[in-house]
Amino acid sequence: MKPTLLLTALLCVSSRADFTVDIWSGHYSATPYTLEYPNTFVGSYTIPSNPFSPELNIGPALDWRPFGLTWFRADIHGSFDVVTPGTSHLSLGNLWGSRVNAGFSIDGVGAFMGSDINPDVSVTLPVGTYSFHLGYLPSLVQTDVGTVTESLPSGKNGIAIIDDNHSWGPSIGVPESSAWWLWLVPAGILLLRIDCRRRSSR
Prior knowledge:
- This protein has a six-stranded antiparallel sheet, with no helix packed on it. A four-stranded antiparallel sheet has the order 5-14-7-10, with no helix packed on it. Strands 2-3 form a two-stranded antiparallel ribbon.
- It is elongated and about 60 Å long.
- It has helices spanning 3-14, 185-200, and strands at 19-25, 28-29, 34-35, 40-47, 56-58, 72-82, 86-93, 101-106, 109-114, 120-125, 128-137, 140-145, 148-153, 159-163.
- The chain has two helices and 14 strands.
- Strand 2 and strand 3 (34-35) form a beta hairpin.
């Protein structure tokens, strides 16, 4: 196999499709007070993925406004590969305020739910490909509306799945998700050099 073809094969094996974020909107207002469950589909977009973990981080500054929305429902889903069986410690992050609603599952089995705290769980998986789903509703806070107190969106929106162990990737080690592909670069440069030398010697 030519080095350039080998590099392409490595990239194809080691990368998965980005995670998908589906967004629904719902009406809310303080006066008159209304808070509708978000059931109107707005659109979808993708976010970069780690091929060996469901970890993600959306709105790390708690400023997530998908399609400009403050009150919405997000369904985040995708898949990842376990190539080294083992246990990873996962936790929910970026939860703020009261009544944050988040639920996470792997292959349809609930892993944890979130409210006012940052829940965590250890998940043990054998080799295979797994789907995951994360449902999210922004946080609500008690807000004075005239003479009564109602629950309204806090405006501080963000959600993360934190993978502390990264134990499911290749046994040589898995870098942080923001640059998981960098471990392929040295091998790619070496292969291209070999290919160039062979061409120049002809």
